[in-house]
Design brief:
385 residues, alpha/beta, Rossmann fold, 7 strands, 16% strand, disordered N terminus, metal ion binding
Length: 385
């Protein structure tokens, strides 16, 4: 028998200790499987810059501080922070101000691979030069950098110390799997499934409630940590359907071939029904209405912009006609974001078996995958009320 992992407990504290995007620089690492996120982020830069233009400029004697929440371990967060710093520097210059010092906090759960992230950071420019000279040196970093481990559903910073919060492709991750979803006595018990795509209404409502509770906590805390005149730019997976059991792109990513792979392990006797049913992806693609209700109920922020943005496919392949490459891209994409949870639940050996099946299924349905799997994003620009 293959070794079994320990069950992932649904409590937020337990999830905080183990959950992260897959670290390192290997084939299934997040660093090597986040090209789609990079492309989607670049396509939204005009929206990010609109938010940056709303941030109130403070005294040049006070550092300008940006925090990226859910930074993960690839270069995407570094590229985005660089765009933010350079745009804000231009704003200071255009207003006739001296440039302040810039500081960036990279934040994620303690299990995040901060080592890989910091290895990707360019060197800090020589302090002998001016900030203008530093910004002109493309190969150097023009800001002080620090890592902040912790859940963004808890307080991360002292009050009134951040000018801008940025968070992309992270807020759809819940603080925990709703307890009722893996409770056999509950009407929301997600029997036979590992995600809410196509699940019962009661299951989906439990996920929706968890999302709105978590987002409410996030907004309340950021409202305390932002400086007066500060803003936030948030991007998370979204959907256009009013039905939360239709999870759009994430539904196709985790509710089809990934689901079928779990079912294969059950049918082959490698795991029990109960083992599969006690695993659920703690993710929720929000509708605009879901999101808007929480922002308005919290009251800390004014909505500058709230829209659904078409991000495109999460599968980036060099040869679309190569079915094997598409299947591998599907398996690597799933594993880069959920592999750590699968490993913890069923152990490394069975995890390898599961993702091997995902790859085979993706290869067999390559054309359909590329045609149909598209991600939508909720994009929110918020300013402190």
């Amino acid at each position: 028998m293959a070794p079994k992992g320990d069950n992932v407990l649904v409590s937020s504290k337990k999830l905080e200790k183990i959950f992260c995007m897959k670290g390192g620089k290997g084939e299934s690492s997040y660093a090597n499987n986040s090209k789609a996120q990079a492309m989607h982020a670049r396509s939204m830069l005009h929206l990010l810059k609109e938010t940056l233009d709303r941030v109130q400029l403070s005294s040049p004697e006070v550092p300008f501080v940006v925090a990226d929440l859910g930074c993960s371990s690839g270069s995407n967060t570094i590229n985005t922070v660089d765009v933010i710093i350079r745009h804000m520097a231009k704003r200071y210059e255009a207003s006739g101000y001296d440039l302040p010092e810039f500081s960036a906090f990279f934040s994620d759960l303690p299990s995040n691979d901060f080592n890989t992230l910091f290895q990707l950071l360019p060197p800090m420019a020589n302090h002998g030069g001016s900030m203008e000279e530093t910004l002109a040196a493309d190969s150097h970093r023009s800001y002080f950098a620090a890592g902040v481990p912790g859940s963004f559903y808890r307080q991360l910073f002292p009050s009134r110390c951040i000018d801008l919060f940025h968070s992309a492709f992270s807020l759809h991750w819940l603080s925990q799997v709703p307890e009722s979803v893996i409770d056999k006595r509950s009407a929301a018990y997600n029997k036979g499934k590992v995600f809410i795509h196509g699940a019962k209404e009661s299951t989906a409502n439990a996920y929706k409630k968890q999302f709105q509770t978590d987002l409410g906590s996030f907004l309340k805390l950021r409202g305390k940590e932002l400086k007066k005149g500060g803003s936030m730019f948030l991007v998370c997976l979204g959907r256009t359907s009013v039905d939360p059991t239709d999870q759009s792109g994430p539904g196709l990513l985790f509710g089809t071939h990934f689901q079928d792979a779990w079912d294969d392990l059950v049918q082959e006797g490698l795991i029990t029904n109960e083992k599969r049913d006690s695993f659920n992806i703690p993710m929720y693609a929000s509708s605009l209405q879901d999101f808007k209700e929480v922002v308005e109920a919290d009251g800390s922020f004014t909505i500058n912009k709230l829209e659904i943005f078409k991000g495109g496919s999460p599968l980036v392949v060099s040869q679309p006609d190569d079915a094997a490459e598409v299947g591998q891209a599907l398996a690597n994409s799933c594993r880069s974001v959920a592999g750590v949870l699968v490993d913890a639940h069923i152990g490394d050996q069975l995890s390898n078996e599961l993702f091997s099946r995902v790859e085979k299924k993706g290869t067999g349905q390559a054309k359909e995958l590329l045609e149909h799997i598209q991600f939508l994003h909720v994009v929110a620009s918020l300013s402190l009320a």
